[in-house]
Amino acid sequence: TGGPDSFGYTWRDTVLTAGTLGFKDTTWGSGTWTRINGLGDDNLVGPFPLGWSFRYYYYNVNQLWIGSNGWMTFRNPGASQLASPFPNIPATTPPNDLVVPYAADLNYGGTGNPGRCYFYTNNTDTSIVSFYNVPFWQQTAPNWNGGNTFQVIFTSADSSITFKYKDTS
Fold first, then answer.
1. Residue 131 is inside which H or E element, if any?
2. 64 near 73, Cβ under 8 Å?
3. Which segments in the chain show pLDDT lower than 70?
4. Taking the mean position of all CA atoms in its chain, how far away is CA 38?
5. 44 near 67, Cβ under 8 Å?
6. Which of 34, 89, 137, 146 could form a disulfide with 107 if both were Cys (CB 3.0 to 4.6 A apart)?
7. Which pTM was predicted?
8. CB 14 within 8 A of CB 21
9. Distances (CA, A) of 35 to 116, 120, 128, 130, 132
10. Alpha carbons 25 and 166: distance in angstroms, whole number
11. Cis ω on the peptide bond leading into residue 95 (within 30° of 0)?
12. Which of 116, 118, 121, 119 has the alpha carbon at shortest distance from 148?
């Protein structure tokens, strides 16, 4: 565990603190799950409206962009991309409002690629980005290997950002 930082954020590892996984699948909640299209290799898509205002450090945000390499940001980074080799985080240059649950050279492209991503919002106080079976990029055909399932939950009640991991290989 650690923190709080100067803005009150703390962290804890649920394995070490006897927490539970609690992964939210696409049948959870009363809001809307949307499959994200357009993710490939080293790109981002968005914006996706949270449907409510989320307090991120010292400012409020209401939308996010999703990067194919396991990250998201609250402001359009333009031509900036996060790709391997990844820069130091935190950064002083944009995109510097990053939420990075799993920075890896992930890939949604290639024939038969099982990777998919979903966005959830209840338009009130909770939004989730879920990455399912997203493989790593590899140079040889089929240009992907493995699978990673993880998610990020944004909650307004306490301005929390929760990372959950189901499977990584």
1. strand 126-132
2. yes
3. 14-21, 79-80, 93-95
4. 15
5. yes
6. 137
7. 0.89
8. yes
9. 7, 9, 12, 9, 11
10. 10
11. yes
12. 116
